[in-house]
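Chapter summary example.
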Amino acid sequence: MTRVVQSIMLIGLVFILGAAGCNKGSVPIKSDTSTIDLSDDLSKYRPRYEAPQNTVSDGSNQIEQNRALEVTSDLSEKLNVALDTVAARNDSLGFVQGYSILVYSGSSRTTADRTRNRLFDIVDPDDIQRLDYDLPNWFVRVGQFYEQIEAQALYLKIIEYYPTSTIVPQKFPLRK
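The structure predicted for these 176 residues follows.
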């Protein structure tokens, strides 16, 4: 019996709090914007800037004279050395980080073959369709892109036919 009374009291308390939360003072009302005065003078708060000394006055427009930049240090030699070391390191790795479009991932070889064969009709033959087997799944991947944005155009073509396809990061072997 006490449980029933407690339940009724709890329901009543929730109802009272809900009704109290909906009174006019707690619900925001959109005010009429026509009564707001927007004619305050804010010019005293604006920052003031003086014109630079190297300007030429041309009537109402002011044109700033161009000056040649003075180079105090030349970093091209250091940059060339750094780029050469990065290129040598990348050549020693044998792989480059990139992106491809994963169209199918599953355990059925026949579905992977059908997906790959259908992709020949959808995409250009220049884009490589790879069928990879990585125990226990088959993968159908399309394209080799260095940046993810490069894959977007082909991805938009493929997603019309395969909405579950996605762009995934992948390592590609360097071609020598």
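To summarize the output: The helical segments are 2-21, 76-93, 109-122, 152-161.
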